[in-house]
Amino acid sequence: MRFALMLALGLGVSGCGAFDSLSSGASGFSGGSGPFSGGGGIRGSASEVDGIRFRTRLSKDSEDRRSFTTATRGASRNVTAALEAGRVEAVEYCLRNFGGSEIEWSIGPDRPIEEVTPDESGALILAGRCVTR
What we know:
Oligomer: single chain
Number of strands: 5
Mean pLDDT: 74
Strand order of the largest sheet: 1-2-3-5-4
Largest sheet: 5 strands, antiparallel
């Protein structure tokens, strides 16, 4: 009986690292951080769209946490894919913090490509507000 209990505890503890590796993107899924990893860091979150890897950094408004701005670097490689990478980062932020994916865009990903211009650093900017809950 005691052996079975020790074995069950040992197996339970040994599996803890497996869940961490899934959320960190180490398992080989595209996109360096999943929607619930809480990642991003200083350089932003990595995501892959149409085979192109982008880094997107999200900044929340200090007075209204629901409002945010994303900056996706390397947009000149594929503007449409960069827009999608920024949208994905924004949806993940809203899901993680407010429980839903509905966004009211002030500078959205659905605007015509000819209206999209990167900033002085070459990053594509999106801005919006999470409206769920």
